């Protein structure tokens, strides 16, 4: 099971995510980094464990504001050995193709920003693409056909439970099981709610391909030994 740390970018800084309520996000304060600059935070995360992948959510771009491309360029240059998964709100074919041509990382298509299932369907066989199925409470954020038609899903699917991000509520195992059953052998990644190594153990037993984490790293609830065990 792969463990993937998350960096949330807002106005060029890394912020602390809490339950998907983006108006409450503030620049992160963490013992892993002296500042909220993305380079410092990424370096701090990598000091815990040699992560192969880092997930980046460009919250400005997702909200339709000017993006944090400059920060992504800096991250890519500073950590060339790391693969970045980037959710930046892209919802059109031309924007997706242009972004992939820049080779800044793999592209995460978030369901909350899609108008329909067509863009995801277009990239279903592209190994550079991941789909984030976004949920808030029990509500699916996105076009219903995207959730109802797993045949259009790419090989990597993220079950993103926004209400559990930074909440300490634990992973949503019931939703994960439902998505795994629908995914028909695709790689499913859990996101939201991980508190400690016990949660990682439960997720590993569930058979997920990986898990996205953030708060538990900055709070010291997962250490290098915990991470290495998975």
Brief descriptors of the model:
230 residues; alpha/beta; TIM Barrel; eight-stranded parallel beta barrel; 25% strand
- The radius of gyration over CA amounts to 16 Å
CATH architecture: Alpha-Beta Barrel
Q: What name goes with the CATH superfamily?
A: Aldolase class I
Strand content: 15-25%
Strand order of the largest sheet: 1-4-5-6-7-9-10-11
Main beta-sheet strand count, sense and barrel state = 8 strands, parallel, barrel
Structural class: alpha/beta
Please report the number of helical segments. 10
Low-confidence stretches: none
What string gives the helices and strands in order? EEEHEHHEHEHEEHEHEHEHH
Overall morphology = globular
Distance between the termini: 6 Å
Instruction: Quote the CATH topology.
Output: TIM Barrel
Number of domains: 1
Determine the mean pLDDT: 93
Which bin fits the share of residues in helices?
25-40%
Q: Tally the beta strands.
A: 11
CATH C-level label: Alpha Beta
């Amino acid at each position: 099971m792969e463990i993937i740390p998350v960096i949330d970018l807002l106005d060029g800084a890394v912020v602390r995510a809490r339950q998907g309520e983006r108006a409450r996000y503030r620049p992160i304060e963490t013992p892993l980094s002296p500042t909220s600059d993305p380079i410092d935070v990424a370096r701090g995360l990598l000091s815990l464990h040699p992560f192969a992948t880092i997930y980046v959510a460009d919250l400005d771009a997702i909200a339709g504001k000017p993006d944090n491309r400059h920060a992504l360029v800096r991250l890519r240059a500073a950590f060339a050995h790391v693969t970045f998964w980037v959710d930046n709100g892209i919802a059109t074919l031309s924007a997706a193709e242009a972004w992939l041509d820049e080779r800044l990382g793999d592209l995460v298509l978030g369901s909350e920003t899609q108008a329909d299932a067509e863009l995801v369907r277009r990239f279903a066989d592209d190994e550079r693409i991941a789909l984030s199925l976004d949920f808030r409470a029990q509500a699916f954020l996105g076009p219903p056909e995207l959730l109802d038609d797993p045949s259009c899903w790419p090989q990597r699917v993220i079950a993103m439970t926004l209400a559990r991000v930074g909440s300490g509520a634990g992973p949503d195992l019931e939703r994960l099981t439902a998505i795994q059953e629908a995914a028909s052998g695709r790689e499913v990644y859990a996101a939201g709610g991980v508190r400690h190594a016990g949660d990682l153990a439960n997720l590993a037993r569930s058979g997920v391909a990986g898990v996205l984490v953030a708060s538990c790293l900055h709070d010291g609830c997962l250490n290098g030994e915990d991470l290495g065990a998975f």
